[in-house]
Amino acid sequence: MPAAAMKSTPLPTQSTAKRPVLLDLPYEPVEKRPLPAGRPREWYVGHNRRLKAMRLAIALLDSGVYLPQQARNDTIRTTAEMIGVHPPSDTTCHMVRALMKYTR
User: Fold this and answer.
1) Which of 7, 22, 68, 89 has the fewest other C-beta atoms within 10 Å?
2) CB-hemisphere CA count at 13 Å for 74?
3) Which pTM does this prediction carry?
4) Phi, psi of 71 (to 5 degrees)
């Protein structure tokens, strides 16, 4: 049978932009390790904020939000609720958009 006559079906790894994608929650949580001791409190706050922003940016990308302009604060907060993260502050929402912008 000629290759042109065969109907191609998209592989699971191909783009899914034409159909909705459900978030695939982690099957088991990542093992937590203690943070290094002796740093100023601001370092821990910033570190946890960056981790939260990365988790939210990944969840938004998985749900089909690819551009920072699409990620308004309410969209980010809805995604946070969906993945079980406390609602982010305006600063964290700004950081999520920055991550989406600079990782392209």
Assistant:
1) 7
2) 0
3) 0.68
4) -95, 80
